Amino acid sequence: MKLAVDAMGGDNAPESIINGCKLALETYSDLEIILIGKENEIKKFIDPSDRVKILHTDVVIEGEDSPVKAVRRKKDSSMVLSVQQVKEGKADSAISAGNTGALMTAGLLGVGRIKGIERPALSPMLPTLGGEGFLLLDVGANMEAKASHLYQYALMGSIYMQKVRKVKQPRIGLLNVGSEPGKGTELSKEVYTLLSESSLNFVGNVEARDLLEGVADVVVCDGFSGNLVLKSIEGTALSLFTILKKELTSSLKNKLAAGILKPAFKQVKLKMDYSEYGGAGLFGLDAPIIKAHGSSDDRGFFSAIKQAHTMHEENVVETIRKELEINEEGKE
């Protein structure tokens, strides 16, 4: 697998980006990486080799840049060139921890959408208490959405969970302010009707407080609501770890107890730490494009690469494309 990496995107670029790539190169013997960015900065952390290429550019899309303007005006930026490598067939997948909107725009203008998909969705796997996890679509690719968009999110999510995660009948939930039918906005009500009348395994409205309990395998919502949920889960997990660390080091007795319970706490962290769940795939694009978390550390970026590797190995894009074609044929 050949992976194009925006080495300059994210809060901790390029060091954490490259360290994550090193972990991935050690883990996947079939992996080749093209690092795109400022060559002198990249070479501080890694040297070119048979499996590592460097494509130099001084141009970087910043977090505060307007997505569409940035992509069109900075065509030689590290992010745009990463997607371009995929478009030209020089890489199988691209990954960036940079500006989310810009990556979506670059993906749309570069590799385009899967036929039949109106809007791609930013879709991370998030933890559940049982360890299975759930797929959340959308968490910020589209702040406003139509009912047809959310229906397509559900369809893509169901295909992914069934074909890749091997869930026989993925449970589809619609994020809402209550579980009862008829709750929520006009958009929610319209989507509820669409999903109820579909062949998908729709379990109804689900509330944010129940997500980590594993109430559904796929949860759909507009990007604004999804981003709020994502950031709330991340913030709560980080705050919980901070509180635990403070309390467990506050006295000798607590330190002794912490030493005994360390393996258990490590497992809790693995279950709840978003960095262990990798990046978010831009589902609906015609090639695997992965958005890593903006504040990714070494491990977080490695987990995002793992997501890209899985999407490539499992032919996720091709699987979604074929299943959508079968679904459309079934309607005719």
Commentary on this structure:
This is Phosphate acyltransferase. InterPro entries: FA_synthesis, Phospholipid_synth_PlsX-like. It comes from Evansella cellulosilytica (strain ATCC 21833 / DSM 2522 / FERM P-1141 / JCM 9156 / N-4) (Bacillus cellulosilyticus). The protein is of the alpha/beta class and 332 residues long. The chain folds into 2 domains: 1-119 and 278-332, Isopropylmalate Dehydrogenase (3-Layer(aba) Sandwich), CATH 3.40.718; 125-275, Isopropylmalate Dehydrogenase, CATH 3.40.718. The chain has helices at 15-27, 39-42, 67-73, 78-87, 100-110, 147-163, 186-196, 223-248, 252-272, 298-313, 316-331; strands at 2-6, 32-37, 52-56, 93-96, 121-123, 125-126, 134-137, 172-175, 202-206, 218-220, 280-283, 289-291. Strands 3-2-1-4-12-11-5 form a 7-stranded mixed sheet, with helices on both faces. The chain has a 5-stranded mixed sheet with strand order 6-7-10-8-9, with helices on both faces. It is globular, with a radius of gyration of 20 Å. The model has no long low-confidence stretch (mean pLDDT 89).
